Amino acid sequence: MKLGFNEATTLRNSNLIKDLEYCEKLGYDYIEIRTEDKLTEYLQNHTLEELVYFFDTHHIKPLALNALIFFNNRDEAGHKAIIDKFKDMVEKASKIGAKYIVAVPLVTEEKILKNEIKKSCVEVLQELSMIAEPYDVKIAVEFIGHPQATVNTFAQAYDIIQTVNRENVGLVFDCFHFHAMGSQLDDLKKADGSKIFILHIDDTEDFPIGILTDEDRVWPGFGAIDLDNILSTLKAIGYSDVVSVELFRPEYYQLTAEETIKTAKDTTLKVISKYYDLNAVKN
Predict the structure, then answer these.
(1) What are phi and psi of 45, to 5 degrees?
(2) Residue 281 pLDDT
(3) Does residue 67 have a cis bond before it (omega within 30 degrees)?
(4) What pLDDT, on the 0 to 100 scale, is given for residue 283?
(5) Can you tell me the distance from the alpha carbon of 112 to that of 265, in angstroms, rounded to the nearest whole number?
(6) For residue 15, what pLDDT is reported?
(7) What pLDDT sits at residue 280?
(8) How far is residue 42's CA from residue 62's CA, in Å, rounded to a whole number?
(9) 274 phi and psi, to 5 degrees?
(10) What pLDDT is stored for residue 279 in this prediction?
(11) Which of 54, 77, 101, 140 has the smallest C-beta neighbourhood within 10 Å, fewest atoms?
(12) pLDDT of residue 278
């Protein structure tokens, strides 16, 4: 298994250049690049060609562009905007060598019937799949463990990607989101591990199911998520690709970027190493 870093973990105390510098120094294998803020900021004074050169000359590689936000159940104008955005993202991902584009389902206060959510998700993902296919970029759908998210459990998300039935469409499995809306281990045990493209590792304070928010996340192994059963199940179903640490903890943004990135690595390795062999540099 390889070690990845999601830039949300240093959202308020770093930028893409610093994240790349420290992740390279600390032995990470991959980085998930935030497109809405950190990549946009980077491109104000740098070019994609510079980013390509960095990846060509360093160990760390781009895992994913994160994220295509609220892709489903949009009106006509919203759908067109999603398609245009995805076309831009897939071209950028292909150019820098990123394997995936993370796609996030709609979060809304509006009540939408589950069959309408599934229908929209399947149709849009099949369309995105066809656009992405010539670029050799895959789509990783991330279910969101909040009540207002239209796709908020593992079972719901897995059913959608099974119905889409495209080789280049799979899931992000985020431990926080799995826990936050009470997704079931039995559903994970029945899944095909090859349909999970990215593993997000994190933990959370012990608040009740249904009221957890991203800022409740804590270092892996420091919270209430049953990471042992989750990780042993993921291994049993054949997942062994990349574990990417993703936190949104306000207190961690008060640390230096290097300290955040190092602690994220150290805590992740301690949890993961019980189940997987990671060959990350031990700094």
Answers:
(1) -130, 0
(2) 41
(3) yes
(4) 42
(5) 39
(6) 98
(7) 46
(8) 15
(9) -70, -20
(10) 66
(11) 77
(12) 83
Closest CA relative to residue 243, chosen from 158, 172, 184: 172
d(CA 5, CA 140): 16
DSSP codes, the chain: -EEEEEGGGGTTT--HHHHHHHHHHTT-SEEEEEIIIIIHHHTTTS-HHHHHHHHHTSS-EEEEEEEEE--SS--HHHHHHHHHHHHHHHHHHHHHT--EEEEE--B-SS---HHHHHHHHHHHHHHHHHHHGGGT-EEEEE---STTBSS-SHHHHHHHHHHH--TTEEEEEEHHHHHHTT--HHHHHTS-GGGEEEEEE-EE--PPTT---GGGEESTTSSSS-HHHHHHHHHHTT--SEEEE----GGGGGS-HHHHHHHHHHHHHHHHTTT--------
Which residues does the chain have with pLDDT short of 70?
279-283
Amino acid found at 68: L
CA distances from 12 to 37, 100, 262 (A): 10, 24, 16
CA distance 64 to 2: 14
What gap in Å lies between CA 72 and CA 105, rounded to an integer?
6
User: What letter represents residue 239's amino acid?
Assistant: Y
Residue 46: predicted pLDDT: 98
Structural domains in the chain, sorted by start? 2-273 (3.20.20.150)
Amino acid at 267: T
8 A C-beta contact, residue 194 and residue 237 = no
Q: Which residues are CB-neighbours of 89 under 8 A, at least 6 positions away?
A: 35, 65, 68, 101
The whole-angstrom separation of Cα 260 and Cα 219 is 10
Which residue, chain included where needed, has tokens 């999601």? Answer: 6
